């Protein structure tokens, strides 16, 4: 497992599909994930610190998780099958002690977009599997990968998203 | 409280906003609720029995509610404040017995669109408060209100959504 962070949200103009760019911590590798328009607008609001008066769906989900005495522990984007990305959201049941083991962690199958939104909203870590890291990440060869590095910004902006089309034949985002 | 069911999904063309039409059971009254485009597409998929390979956000929410040993008991659309509709989703904690009382039911603040989607997906009842029933419903004066009644269909289609604008000044759906 490799820890990643959300680097940016770009648009695959060819398919008019939003793409989340994940950056693997401690490396110069990135992983793009195609997502749906509705989830992209939620991620954009988070990245731009736009708040909303009423609870959005993920806020409702999180208030329920909290009300049911659980918390988001981490999320894992674990595989790609038939051009579809899969993720897991791992909850921790706060009513179970670590020693009890069973039921301490609960895993839920999710789309990466939902998993990423929940991680961002709860400041929980996002991981990708070693398989995704070894097979589907792209190397960045520039100097700095800082958010404010113009070089890296240009790399992201000019990313040939078609490079990744081999992983995404005929698929519609992570939907 | 009055029990309602989702009658249809229409478009407020003036504001290009989807509107859910709720019908109060045992009456000829309807309540329109403006919702967001993303939530409308989920409701449309449910009404048209379109299934999706991967879990959508509400499916993830419900799998977590189930995993945390709870269930959706009912939803209540309870008030309109400053042109915004409010709802509650009531969960039942399946680990608490009815006799224990405290914690048996858990209430969560929600947008009506999310509440309606969760009710539809779990076959749970939808209620509106007496205040909404008395103040914000519209009377239908035709004969049959059956889903297949052409007269009622026309009434819904020709509904002057501007009638309701007084309740919705400047608001953007239930967002």
TrEMBL record, chains A, B:
Every BFN domain range: 1-140
The coiled-coil regions, if any, are none
Q: List where the protein spans the membrane.
A: none
Q: Which domain of life is it from?
A: Bacteria
- One annotated GO molecular function: nuclease activity
Return the Pfam families for the record.
BFN_dom
InterPro entries noted in UniProt: BFN_sf, Bi_nuclease_dom
Q: What is this protein called?
A: BFN domain-containing protein
Q: In which organism is this protein found?
A: Thermosipho melanesiensis (strain DSM 12029 / CIP 104789 / BI429)
Upper classification of the organism:
Bacteria, Thermotogati, Thermotogota, Thermotogae, Thermotogales
């Amino acid at each position: 497992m490799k820890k990643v962070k959300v680097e940016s949200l770009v648009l695959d103009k060819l398919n008019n599909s939003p793409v989340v760019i994940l950056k693997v911590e401690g490396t110069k590798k990135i992983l793009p994930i195609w997502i749906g328009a509705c989830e992209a607008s939620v991620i954009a609001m988070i990245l731009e610190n736009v708040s909303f008066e009423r609870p959005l769906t993920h806020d409702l989900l999180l208030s329920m998780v909290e009300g049911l005495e659980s918390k988001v522990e981490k999320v894992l984007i674990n595989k790609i099958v038939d051009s579809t990305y899969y993720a897991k959201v791992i909850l921790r049941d706060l009513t179970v002690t670590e020693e009890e083991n069973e039921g301490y962690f609960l895993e839920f199958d999710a789309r990466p977009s939902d998993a990423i939104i929940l991680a961002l909203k709860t400041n929980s870590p996002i991981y990708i599997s070693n398989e995704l890291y070894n097979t589907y990440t792209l190397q960045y060869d520039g100097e700095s990968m800082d958010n404010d590095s113009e070089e890296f910004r240009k790399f992201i902006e000019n990313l040939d998203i078609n490079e990744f089309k081999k992983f995404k034949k005929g698929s519609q985002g992570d939907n």
